[in-house]
Structure to design on (380 residues):
């Protein structure tokens, strides 16, 4: 293993030096008024070297991965064939790589179908070559590995791969003894999963249960893979619905500031306010005005908001936690959000930085541990 790492490292350093030299020459030629044939040649050579250096980097990464992790056979074979193709055709820039399980057992366990695509690439460059001859070249340049027992070329250039029985035996034995093991993480990241989040004054329903189950399932999967998972379940205690509720509260219990209003059924109270909001234009305007005054944190409106939240939270049980308003009171005036990353509908867009800082560039302590996270938001 150490010999292979040393070999790859030496080749990596050599090709990095070549890339630096070629880049300097390309830059020098690029300042010429008209691009020369030599410049185009150097650019193509530079592209080939960058591809080869990436192959070597993948080799180092594969060797560096802990043996405790299960082997992804397709990925391992892709690495082997990428090395062979690069060695057999060093002049090709980004040659295609196609490795997949074989559909018919008599033709082997896996199959590499890159030869035909490489033939098309070479034909476009004016080099007509038989795909079967290309497949033979690839097989001749296969590096020593622990997976492949033998290969057979069939049809116009399909490379059928038969795995070593010793490799399969070790893999199956490990699976029986140790169970399914996740791949090794090079860097343990935090994943924030935000789910359920019931709203104040509204009954919980099957949608909350569904998103809770989905969210918890995702959490367990990420924990199994080795990520540090943060579960978030906010209470929806901020927004337009409070304008309706406060306006209705003012009408039904005008002395609410001095006498606690006997709201026994908050759900019915909410439905009454919603009906008035939909049917009474004057009430709607008052409701919007109440939202503005609540967000301005006027004491009487904060008092009304607190009363409504207290009634709702009595039925929420363990969900008595910070709601959305918690961040409103902090971020609206005292904190600036640097950047927030969301994966909407479980579509990964990127990995980024999340931090809350004040004017003194101090990190808000409860957000400090969420720097460099993935955030999942499941919405309906």
């Amino acid at each position: 293993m150490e010999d292979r790492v040393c070999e790859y490292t030496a080749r990596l350093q050599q090709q990095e030096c070549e890339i630096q030299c070629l880049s300097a020459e390309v830059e020098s030629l690029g300042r010429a008024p008209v691009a020369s044939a030599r410049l185009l040649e150097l650019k193509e050579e530079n592209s080939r070297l960058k591809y080869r250096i990436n192959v070597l980097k993948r080799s180092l990464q594969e060797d560096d991965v802990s043996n405790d992790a299960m082997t992804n056979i397709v990925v391992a074979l892709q690495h082997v064939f990428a090395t062979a193709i690069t060695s057999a055709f060093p002049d090709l820039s980004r040659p295609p790589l196609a490795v997949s399980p074989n559909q018919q057992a008599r033709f082997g366990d896996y199959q590499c179908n890159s030869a035909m695509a490489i033939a098309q690439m070479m034909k476009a460059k004016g080099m007509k070559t038989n795909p079967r001859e290309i497949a033979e070249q690839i097989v001749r340049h296969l590096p020593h590995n622990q997976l492949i027992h033998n290969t057979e070329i069939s049809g116009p250039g399909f490379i059928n791969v038969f795995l070593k029985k010793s490799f399969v035996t070790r893999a199956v034995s490990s699976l029986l003894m140790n169970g399914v093991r996740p791949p090794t993480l090079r860097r343990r990241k935090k994943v924030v999963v935000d789910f359920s989040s019931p709203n104040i004054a509204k009954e919980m329903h099957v949608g909350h249960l569904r998103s809770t189950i989905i969210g918890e399932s995702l959490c367990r999967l990420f924990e199994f893979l080795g990520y540090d998972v943060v579960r978030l379940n906010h209470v929806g205690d901020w927004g337009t619905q409070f304008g309706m509720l406060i306006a209705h509260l003012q009408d039904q219990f005008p002395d609410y500031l001095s006498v606690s209003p006997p709201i026994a059924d908050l759900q019915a109270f909410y439905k009454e306010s919603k009906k008035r909001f939909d049917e009474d234009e004057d009430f709607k305007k008052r409701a919007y005005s109440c939202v503005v005054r609540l967000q301005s944190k006027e004491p009487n409106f904060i008092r009304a908001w607190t009363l409504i939240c207290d009634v709702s939270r009595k039925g929420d049980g363990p969900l008595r936690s910070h709601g959305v308003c918690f961040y409103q009171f902090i971020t609206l005036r005292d904190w600036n959000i640097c950047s927030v990353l969301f994966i909407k509908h479980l579509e990964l867009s990127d990995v980024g930085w999340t931090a809350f800082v004040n004017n003194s560039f101090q990190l808000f302590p409860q957000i400090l541990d969420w720097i460099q996270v993935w955030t999942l938001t499941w919405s309906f």
